[in-house]
Amino acid sequence: MDLGIFCKSTLDGEVVDHCFSALLGIGKNADPSYFDWLMRAWGWTLAVAGLGLLIALSLGAIMGTLRTLPPENPTNRFLVRLSTAWVELFRNIPILVQVFLWYHVIPALIPPLKAFPSYLLVSLALGFFTSARIAEQVRAGIQSLPSGQKAAAIALGLTTYQSYRYIILPMALRIVIPPLTSESMNLIKNSSVAFAVSVPELTLFAMQAQEETSHGVEIYLAVTILYALSAFAVNRAMAHIEKRSRIPGFIVANTEVTAH
Amino acid sequence: MKSISLIKAGLVAAGLLIGTFNAQAASQTMDKIKSTGAVTMGVRESSIPMSYTTGDSRFDGYHVEICRMILGDIKDKLGMSTLRINYQPVTSQNRVPLVQNGTVDIECGTTTNNVNRAKDVSFANTLYVEEVRIAVKANSGITSISQLAGKKVATTTGTTSVQLLRKHEKANGVNFDEVYGKDHADSFLLLESGRADAFVMDGSILAGNIANSKNPKDYKIVGEVLSTEPIAIMVRKDDPEFKAAVDAAIAKIVANGKMPGLWNKWFLSPIPPKNIVVGLQLSPATKNAWANLNDKPAEDYNKK
Q1: Count of C-beta atoms within a 10 Å radius of residue B100
Q2: pLDDT in tens, B236-268
Q3: Is the ipTM of this complex over 0.85?
Q4: Looking at the domain that runs over B130-229, which CATH code has it been given?
Q5: Can you count the helices (H) and strands (E) in chain A?
Q6: What angle do CA B43, B210, B61 make, to 5 degrees?
Q7: Which domains are seen in chain A, by residue range?
């Protein structure tokens, strides 16, 4: 196993002058080394995943909430049907197929989308796919609350919007933080499908660099470690959010022991 | 004294025994072919007309037909009555690992013979010398690589063209926006849909994909030759006897004068499945490779 290949230049295979110091911004290599390329690819992975996460969390929370609206008037009923359609559509199609749809098919139908860079389209695809899953988790969280909460809110004279905003969602979202952690970590890992539409992220780097250097073990080891590191960082961030937003004694599961 | 001569005799006997074992175990590929009655040929799916699928899990092409002739020759050499050929589709990324680990016995695709790959696999004598060119849409007005500065250039992941573009960018101080296709059909789709302004790849792959597209007249192969590369059949690295057998079969095919006919069949006549003509003329470099069979790597070709 020759870890030294990371310090070799991508152009001519010679060892570069600044292998690790280039990362800290001290020296700049004349030709990028495989390590420079690896770091850039990691940046792309995090960017695509981060943008996808933003889209997924916001859209997912909205759609999940809309799914649980009481069917008392036509607007509510329409919103419930809309959010159900959204969830079913994006849940039933595989992620890779969705990425190809967004990249090849939909720009053919909506020409302005052709100008979008590929990483934006991939983030949209990832975001929408994950938002369907997050919507279902948020819905589960809302529906797990005892019905007395909604009833008490209405009895107090709160409108539907107010009851969701002040009573239901604060508790429901705290309940679903563990599944949301899983979804966020999944998104980091699913970002690897971006290689199929030529986003220069970690998986594309792994495939191309392995072919160029013939050192598959070292390349894939580094890529695996970086994916695991990114996913774990998201895990720790969500754990921190869980701890900070915890209301002691409010929900059974929210004790020191089980929240970790 | 007696014990020493006994030991010596024992060593000599052991040496002879090992010698006979070695003579039989010299080519693990040939042994495997003989004992299983089958051989695995690595093929490509969209490298028209060298190695591609004609539909229904059938594969054909210039290199595939040559490999069938080579395997027929090896079958006769091993004294077998039948030889089953298992076709294994490979991609630019996995072709070298699959040959290395023995999944594929002989890879008949469009693999460039270069020094880096020669560390992991062996190449048979070259029967096709490729020139890397650029394919563009005919109405784009691009005629040379220097006009591609700042434009989107498509190429396939895992091919030598990726590094070629990188070196060209560095050498000439231009900057392309590279987009990568997963395979040649995908890269051509990028050009077709307008997501890329040019597709840089081996001339035969460009010609094959253009000929098979919906409107071949919309595309043109332009620009200078970016690189001359020998394309060769890959075999296992540590099996010189098998490589020698393959080279001998190739020499026989060339000596029988079959090569010009094969070229005409695959490059200048209608080919399955759609009966389109690729239309690539025989280059002097390829003719030279037939006349002087060698397995020199790409670096030797570009040394000028």
Answers
A1: 17
A2: 998 999 999 999 999 999 999 999 999 999 999
A3: no
A4: 3.40.190.10
A5: 11, 0
A6: 25
A7: 37-245 (1.10.3720.10)
Comparing CB atoms, the residue among A11, A104, A208 nearest residue B157 is A208
A141 interface with B at CB cutoff 8 Å:
no
Distance from CA of A226 to the nearest CA of B (A): 21
Q: For residues B194 and B95, is the Cβ–Cβ distance under 8 A? A: no
Nearest residue, CB atoms, B157 vs list A108, A204, A214: A204
Dist. CA B61–CA B63, nearest whole Å: 6
Would you say the CATH fold of B130-229 matches that of B29-129+230-301?
A: yes
CB spacing of B119 vs A214 below 8 angstroms: yes
Q: Are the Cβ atoms of A195 and B182 closer than 8 angstroms?
A: yes
Phi then psi for residue B225, to 5 deg, are: -75, 120
C-alpha distance from residue B261 to each of B83, B123, B264, B283 (Å): 25, 23, 5, 15
Q: What residue segments make up the domains of chain B, in order of their start?
A: 29-129+230-301, 130-229
CATH topology of domain B29-129+230-301: D-Maltodextrin-Binding Protein; domain 2 (3.40.190)
pLDDT tens digits, A93-128: 999 999 999 998 998 899 888 888 889 999 999 999
pTM to 2 decimal places: 0.80
